[in-house]
Request: fold
Amino acid sequence: QVKLVESGGGLVQAGGSLRLSCAASGGTFSNYNMAWFRQAPGKEREFVAAISWSDGSTYYAASVKGRFTISRDNAENTVYLQLSSLKPEDTAVYYCAEDRTYRSARFHTTQNFYDYWGQGTQVTVSS
Reply:
């Protein structure tokens, strides 16, 4: 059973930065694309970024492109999300997720393609 544990959230002023981590255990992490989603109060959970299992290629939501960076360390079974130039509208609970497809050639941006989720970490950006 795959377990994902996020950390690194907190309170930061607008324009600041945070680095989120997601540690994976119980599976073969290096064979799966990984993603970050977020959910703001009263809103649907939305896709933020994804990273390939194979070559480290990445894909971002338009709202975060150029400000957020996803990366992974397969030796440490960890995926990261560097958040920079934060805005109050980035306030949300951030979740990491593992794609359900073994060695997927595609990035998936909808929740139904992900079987395993972490518990989430809160990011709050003050104005």
